[in-house]
């Protein structure tokens, strides 16, 4: 009879413990996945509302999001499509799928995202008469250390910024991480996107001079975070440019979306 301290019994106990722990962890992951998906969806809706300046912490997110309509846009045509379910479509996954996206040339890829998905989700806020009040668009692009993911909201004219927010990034706290600073985000509303037909909005070095003729298109820079600031400018200009949502915004304004 082998000793209880034998290597064989030690290995058996260790192996059994690993199996039990693996089963527990796997079971927990399966059981908790629905709740995690619900929380993920709720967080996304919260970020969409926050970017548009519509989030009211005293009210439920679902209640507030009821005034938002989610649609799918074909970025190749700039028009709505109805054969893609917005509830099932994973835009981030599609961007990595060669069958659901297209490669960008170096000249096109100012946001450093490599590929652009064929379809994108857009969020429309409508009044009681069905007229569009705000347009909320997903944006992403590379900063200094990471890809920043967020939303930019526009007023109904498709040119005036209503707000901006990033919900995921890995930029340096206190430097590039200042994209999360409420004071800096409060600068965006009221700024203009397009100038002479091109997306001209962007960050500058230092603070914007209100008397400057370019002030309407300029955002205060991020101190000590030049590359992050440049990345934010590039990603916003890309997604609001000709290879992003500009064709859709033009179609929306002309009633051809």
How are the SSEs placed, and which strands pair?
Elements (H helix, E strand, L loop, with lengths): L6 H45 L9 H5 L2 E7 L4 E3 L9 H5 L5 E3 L11 E3 L1 E8 L5 E11 L4 E9 L5 E8 L13 H4 L8 E2 L2 E2 L2 E2 L14 E2 L6 H14 L6 H9 L3
Parallel strand pairs: 11-12
Antiparallel strand pairs: 1-2, 1-5, 3-4, 5-6, 6-7, 7-8, 9-10
Class by helix and strand content? alpha+beta
Q: How many strands in all? A: 12
Gross geometry: globular
Task: Calculate the mean pLDDT score and round it.
Answer: 92
**Helix-strand pattern, N to C?**
HHEEHEEEEEEHEEEEHH
Read across the widest sheet, the strand sequence of neighbours is 2-1-5-6-7-8
Uncertain parts: none
Query: How many discrete domains?
Result: 2
Q: Please state the CA-atom Rg, rounded to the nearest Å.
A: 23 Å
End-to-end distance = 81 Å
Number of distinct helices: 6
Fraction of residues in helices? 25-40%
Strand content: 15-25%
Largest sheet: 6 strands, antiparallel
Description:
It contains six helices and twelve strands. It has helices at residues 7-51, 61-65, 91-95, 182-185, 226-239, 246-254; strands at residues 68-74, 79-81, 101-103, 115-117, 119-126, 132-142, 147-155, 161-168, 194-195, 198-199, 202-203, 218-219. By secondary structure, the protein is α+β, with helices and mostly antiparallel strands. It has a six-stranded antiparallel sheet with strand order 2-1-5-6-7-8. Strands 3-4 form a two-stranded antiparallel sheet. It is globular and about 85 Å long.
């Amino acid at each position: 009879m082998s000793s209880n301290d034998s290597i064989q019994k030690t290995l058996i106990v260790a192996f059994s413990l690993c199996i039990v722990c693996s089963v527990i962890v796997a079971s927990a992951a399966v059981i908790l996945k629905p709740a995690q998906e619900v929380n993920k969806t709720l967080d996304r809706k919260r970020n969409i509302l926050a970017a548009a300046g519509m989030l009211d912490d005293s009210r439920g997110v679902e209640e507030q999001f009821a005034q938002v309509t989610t649609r799918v846009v074909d970025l190749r045509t700039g028009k709505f499509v109805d054969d893609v379910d917005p509830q099932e479509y994973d835009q981030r996954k599609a961007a990595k799928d060669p069958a659901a996206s297209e490669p960008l040339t170096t000249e096109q890829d100012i946001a450093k995202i490599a590929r652009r998905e064929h379809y994108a989700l857009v969020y429309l806020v409508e009044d009681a008469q069905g007229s569009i009040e705000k347009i909320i668009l997903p944006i992403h692009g590379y900063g200094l250390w990471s890809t920043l993911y967020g939303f930019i909201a526009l007023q109904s004219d498709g040119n005036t910024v209503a707000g901006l927010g990033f919900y995921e990034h890995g930029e340096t706290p206190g430097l590039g991480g200042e994209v999360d600073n409420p004071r800096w985000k409060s600068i965006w509303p009221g700024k203009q996107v397009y100038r002479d037909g091109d997306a001209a909005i962007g960050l500058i070095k230092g603070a914007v001079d209100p008397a400057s003729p370019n002030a309407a298109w300029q955002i205060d820079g991020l101190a000590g975070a030049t590359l992050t600031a440049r990345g934010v400018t590039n990603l916003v200009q890309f997604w609001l440019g000709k290879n992003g949502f500009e064709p859709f915004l033009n179609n929306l304004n002309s009633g051809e979306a």
